[in-house]
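Q: I'm teaching a short session on how sequence maps to structure, and I want students to see two examples side by side rather than one. Could you give me a first protein with its sequence written out and its structure tokens following it? Keep the formatting plain so it prints cleanly on a handout.
A: Of course. Example one:
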Amino acid sequence: MPLSNRLAAEFLGTLWLVLGGCGSAVIAAAFPNVGIGLVGVSLAFGLTVLTMAYAIGHVSGCHLNPAVSLGLVVGGRFKGAELVPYVLAQVAGAIAGAAVLYLIASGTAGFDLKGGFAANGYADHSPGGYSLTAALVCEFVMTFFFLIVILGATDERAPSGFAPIAIGLGLTLIHLISIPVTNTSVNPARSTGPAVIVGGWALAQLWLFWLAPLLGGAAAGVVYRLVSGERSNAAGIEGPSDPSALPKSPP
């Protein structure tokens, strides 16, 4: 599949992730009497990944996340030369998704960006008032295990066709745990989209939501290869070299 097609798929998929996941938090979480709450928002993020994994997994691998792309590079599943283009497409898609969400959400009286617009934060901007250290540890650990789930579910030795379900449910679980801590990132692109709209504190704290997920994703790439005994297939040693060749490829 040409790189241009794969980048377009990553753009659209990440747009959908931000619009669906962050949109559920901004528009539907606290809607009077029928709001979906924390559980609904968690499920919405999982559903965006699950649906896009089936929709574009066979095109781009459906990474939708710079930390996932980096983890796959470190894990020997993805070509390092394509990491930067993938990340740029993901960030562009996230910003576009946040812009579309802003156009929709601002169409009602009383809309105010002071509500946070689903941006990620720590300390005073953590939903539960969690410290910088707590946020850093949480984002690192949650991203680490997200990549462990992704690498395991998409291993060629794993049952075929079920990876999107495991990955979507994994992301749902992560949100159930960590929304009170940071509003849940585990995805630098997802964090960047809302932060660009909110500006100010959200941009000032954005560094953590790049650093921790990238470190967690890279660490998982190393650990999974050690635990599973998998050798690098990015160099053609064994297995498929391009996640885009796998319908079950990771989001």
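Q: Perfect. Now a second example for contrast.
A: Example two:
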Amino acid sequence: MEPFTFTPLLANAFKFAIDKATTEGKICIGMLILVSLFSWTVIINKALQLYKASKMSKKFFAAYRSTREPMEIFNKGSEYTGAPAYEIYFTGAEELAYHLKNNPVEVRRGAVTTISNNKVPGAETDHIARAVTVKVSNASFESVKVALERAVSTQAISLEKGMIILTTAVAGGPFIGLLGTVWGVMETFSGIAIKQAASLAAMAPGVAGALIATVVGLFVAIPAMFAYNYMVTMIRAITQELDNFVTEFATAIEHTFVDNRPVSEEIADALKKMRDEPQADPLAARG
């Protein structure tokens, strides 16, 4: 009994066609192999990137939405490397922290409370309890929104980086293979015409060698097409999620840190602050 030997599917036909391929056909096949290597490199790296982005984004969103304080994650120094939403959050929080430190707006909230004196009947004293909150102006908030929009664009470019190689493989692979096939068929028929031997045995090897270029082109394009369609769908979903998060984060910042008082109240507060501040003695300044 002869031992069983495993032969890969179409291995004999593939080997025969490669051996009979013309030099031009082999050049096209070599180009397709290079395109395939680049394509698979992008597919593997992009799959890992999208998997990590999806996984870390879930962790970041869970942490962010577990608190009502927009700056809590930033103040704690927590990191979610690989999450596009975290990179956007960190950029916006860093810009906001800069304006809170360098361009603060002090908002004074006053409330009148009445304190009774039990020792003296009828004697009541009004005290103004003031709370000073540090916020940012609307102009500073616009800078924060610009930083958030810039971060979204940066993350979108990062997610889409390398996808042009997959589109090139999808669109160009079959055409490169077709070029090799047409060139090989042309060489085959030219040789038959020169030898004047139009037989099936004379044409079959050359045609098989020519067709292998198209087969390789399809092997390059088909995986790239499926990978591209799947990854583009994921990238669009992540990008939409980032746009929604930017709106959510900007709204939280506006409610918590932006001075949205009426102009009249701001002017009155500024005038009162000027009155409360001690005036410098001009005679002391001269001395």
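Q: What should students look for in example two?
A: Point them to this: The chain has a mean pLDDT of 81. Also worth mentioning: The two ends are 119 Å apart (CA to CA).
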